Amino acid sequence: MSGSSRHGIGFWAVSGAFLVAMAFSTVPTPLYPLYQARDGFSTFMVTVVFAVYAVGVVISLLLAGHISDRVGRRRVLVPALALELVAAVLFLADPSLPVLLVARLVTGLGVGMITATATAYLLDLHTAHRPGASRQRFEIVSTAANLGGVGFGPLVAGFLAQYVDAPLRTPYLVFAVLLTAAIVAVAATPETVEVRADRPAYRPQRVSADHGDGYLVATVAGFASFAVFGLFTSVASGFVAGALHHPSRALAGAVVFAVFAAAAAAQTLTNGLAAGTRLAAGLLAQVAGVLVLVAGMHAANLAAFLVGGVVAGVGAGMLFKAAVGAVVTTAAPARRGEALAGLFLVSYLGLSLPAVAIGVATRAVTTTTAMTWFAAVLVVLLAGVAALSRRRVR
What we know:
Elements: H1 3-25, H2 32-39, H3 43-63, H4 68-71, H5 73-93, H6 97-129, H7 136-163, H8 170-187, H9 213-234, H10 236-241, H11 249-269, H12 275-298, H13 302-330, H14 336-361, H15 367-393
Helix pairs in contact: 1-6, 1-7, 1-8, 3-6, 3-14, 5-6, 5-8, 6-7, 7-11, 9-13, 9-14, 9-15, 11-13, 12-13, 12-15, 13-14, 14-15
């Protein structure tokens, strides 16, 4: 088999592994109400479990997310997938709360290594397979594997939990098999980084924030967009089962899938938009979506909740893409890595902190009230992004 053909097969192997890994990261999303019913822990504890995952991602991004440039893509991606497999085994071995926390931390550590490495690997393989070709295939596939995978996990887990025996074990068993297959596939994929004998000494990924006014706009936009993603991957399933009175696990998974599928589609379909237009459209869509979502909760209307979530997902997808584009454009090439690291650090704070705040609030008020407060704060934050962006343009 020619080298080009091997790179072409490897491109799809890594795409599949990327999708499986990101899907596994959200398998617990539709299962949280089942854990709550079995063990009696609160919405606050659900958000703590979720926040532990975000902590793992941030630690891994800073310590290992960048090292595949030096040691090779495969040497990072295979161990990262193995970490995900370890997490799956932990979920299967003992579903108690302490093990759940450890398993989510391990999942986050694996995902932090996978996102940057798999994306860079896909670009390398695409370039080797189709030299001189447009990057459009790479951009579409990497977005679909990343955000699409995050939505695919709850869809599969929710379906299995609804229609198959052992709902707190079967989804993890299925993904343990898929992760094993992904490890084998990646191990057979050609390496794309030539490892130098005189490698420089290891250091963690540098993080910096001094990249001009546009960087502040980008980081606040990243925080706001990930706040929506965090809402749907942590407590949205509980809202659907509780406040909206729809306990179906399959439905909960489908709702989360719809939001992330909308975000992935929006990122892909808005490639031709100017950066300012994408930012403005993302802001408007996210504000409108969150307001409709909260209105649906107050009316206990599932359709409105779902429409609001999808529109908010579209907005969050466009907003985060605009944020990444702004950082790549404004940061000096030599400091682009540390600028993006800062963006992802702030964004993952957005993924976890608002979700935990909602969990804390539900100890004193209803989930609908907590969501109303969340929406109000998010609208103010998005208005701040719009004001900062407009001032920068002027």
